[in-house]
Amino acid sequence: MGNFDVAVIGGGMIGPAISLGLLERGLSVCILDEGDDVLRVARGNFGLVWFQGKGFGMPRYVDWTRRSAALYPDFAAELQEHTGVDVGHANPGGLELLLGEEELAHRRHFIGQIYQQGGGRKYEVEFLDRKQVDDMLPGIVLGDEVVGASYSPVDGHVNPLFLLRAMHTRFQQAGGRYLPHHRVSAVRRTGDAYELSTKAGTVSAAKVVIAAGHGLKELGPPLGLDIPIRPQRGHILVTERTKQILPMPMSAFRQTVEGSIMLGVSAEEAGYNDAVDTATVARIAERASRTIPALRHLNIVRSWAALRVLTPDKCPVYAESESHPGVYAIASHSGVTLAAVNAKVAANWIAGDPAPEEFEAFGVERFDAQKTA
Ligand SMILES: Cc1cc2nc3c(=O)[nH]c(=O)nc-3n(C[C@H](O)[C@H](O)[C@H](O)COP(=O)(O)OP(=O)(O)OC[C@H]3O[C@@H](n4cnc5c(N)ncnc54)[C@H](O)[C@@H]3O)c2cc1C
């Protein structure tokens, strides 16, 4: 069916971002993807380009996230210029609103630890008291329990479905080959190349990138990439459209340009069950109405659940197989946030450049160390 420089398995958030960067390097690239009726996290996420709180235990992840946030405005503009799709990226800063002194103390401790792990290097997160938050959110009456917030000017958001559409459109425009309904069942080495088997035929490529989300669990081990990812369910609720009231995203709320308010986000260990749990939906709505009481008057028009791709330390994996050189695995539970840096930096590593310095932390050997610790 075709020989390519690189075959990317997975057309979610990570695969297309990497593929765009590879095309920019002049390589021939195909994306093999499954059908619609599968787990696809790219279609179920919250759309935050989020910095604060990321990288606990791994300062390199703080750097990597910051780098992506910095690259995002140009990345979004470039996508719009080529495809006409406005991905709705905005970077007005972001807030995590805190209910009660206990939450505030816990958040201070958590953010303080991330700061200290960086050895005192800059970390753009600060704490605001209730008055400062009120001043930052004119027109919103916060609930009595809100005592303050953590704030980062680096945070922002994007429309994740438009991002997906723009990346796919640009990929095909730039000469990439998208192969839907091509579930890869096996990858075999044949001489200098790899052969990828699908029911629709075989593809061969010099390099292979596994950006298959949950599919990595099955594809990785025979290729020397046994990465301990697990699913973690998260719920999202969407309200009817209303006037613009939220000037910036918050970790649990964001208003779309169309006016809907998205409410999130839960975290449940439910295996591969992505069914909606009504008790969780009720909990999210209840907390939202305690935080911003006016939300109580809006109808919830949609809710869904999707499964995060989580590594044990919640930090990303970028790894090349030792037993199968030229086969790479990329997994992250922040594929939206990292889209810009995946396209602009990580892709160059796959193309053959030296690994970015952040990658010293992103290998799979860290999980062996955790196992023996
Ligand atoms: C509730 C929730 C909220 C989230 N909010 C945010 C957020 O605000 N910001 C953020 O940055 N991230 C967020 N995320 C995470 C983000 O959505 C993911 O990090 C991202 O979608 C991962 O992309 P991926 O490409 O690895 O996986 P996916 O998006 O799942 O894509 C993988 C693709 O690979 C395909 N595939 C799998 N196996 C095979 C195979 N064998 N052959 C061919 N194709 C295969 C699948 O069909 C799929 O299309 C959230 C996730 C959840 C669940």
H-E order: EHEEHEHEHEEHEEEEHEEEHEEEHH
Number of strands: 17
Over the alpha carbons, how many angstroms does the gyration radius reach? 21 Å
Helix amount: 25-40%
The bound ligands are: flavin-adenine dinucleotide
Mean pLDDT: 95
Q: What's the main sheet like?
A: 8 strands, mixed
Strand portion, in percent? 15-25%
Distance between the termini: 46 Å
Which class of secondary structure composition applies to the elements? alpha+beta
Shape: globular
Give me the number of helical elements: 9
What layout of secondary structure does this protein have?
Blueprint: E1 3-9, H1 14-24, E2 29-32, E3 48-49, H2 59-83, E4 94-99, H3 100-117, E5 126-129, H4 130-136, E6 146-152, E7 156-157, H5 160-173, E8 177-179, E9 186-190, E10 193-198, E11 201-210, H6 216-219, E12 230-239, E13 253-255, E14 261-263, H7 278-291, E15 300-310, E16 317-320, E17 327-331, H8 339-351, H9 365-372
Parallel strand pairs: 1-2, 1-11, 2-8, 11-17
Antiparallel strand pairs: 3-7, 4-6, 5-6, 9-10, 10-11, 12-14, 12-15, 13-14, 16-17
Helix pairs in contact: 1-5, 1-8, 2-5, 2-8
The structure holds flavin-adenine dinucleotide.
